[in-house]
Amino acid sequence: MSLKKRLFTSSAAAASDGYTDNLTSWVQVGTGKSWEGSGTSMTDLSSNTNNFTLQGAYSYSSGNNYVSLTANSGNMVSSVNLPRNTNYSVLIWYNLSMSSSYSFLLGGNDASYINYITLGNVTSARSNESIGTYSDYGGTDYDYAPLNGHYAYSDGTWRMFVLTNAAGSDLRFYMNGGSTHISSLANSFWSTPSLSVGRYSSGIVHAGLAVGQIRAYSVVLTVQQVIDTYNATKGLYGL
Length: 239
Fold this sequence. Notes:
Layout: H1 3-6, E1 23-28, E2 41-42, E3 52-55, E4 58-59, E5 67-69, E6 75-78, E7 87-97, E8 102-108, E9 115-120, E10 131-136, E11 140-144, E12 155-166, E13 170-175, E14 183-186, E15 195-197, E16 199-200, E17 203-204, E18 209-217, H2 223-233
Antiparallel strand pairs: 1-18, 2-3, 3-6, 4-5, 5-18, 6-15, 7-12, 7-18, 8-9, 8-15, 9-10, 10-11, 12-13, 13-14, 16-17
């Protein structure tokens, strides 16, 4: 089924917003939220003024809870800083349909550092990596995980991806509120001085990405906080 057919268009509100303490930024598409289709600035709901800005080509239909970023053009940038040796988490609701190549999900917009999280077949180094992570911060950390098949998480359904970084020593990924993380990279990290969506510092590469919301936290989310937030917000995306 195509991405377009799977996108959820109801404007019904979720029962709650899940875990909203310790936020450094939170932008969400929808009526009464950060952005309702006008302009390019997406207001930070956490009151920290860490807004996101839409760039390139994108589309939006009134009443929807997501913005559709046009392939290899639309992207979102911010000044949200995520240093490697700090505790933080990033959460994003996304929908991506892809069966070849790869797409940037998260990255940075600072040419001084190359940082990104990818979905799909980003390298020949692994035959079946689902998510790739790269971070260049005075040296590189280049890992691929999990190994669930290139397009396991780009199948045209809504997904909530969570990345947690424990002071540069433990990087974990969660998908759709799973009770256990899908990957843990010991002695690893991911960092960026300018959290972005659909791009990295040198370019915009994705197959057409729908984004419902993105959050950054100043703490490492617990498994229960991930589960609670998924269950509280999944109704916004037809789940």
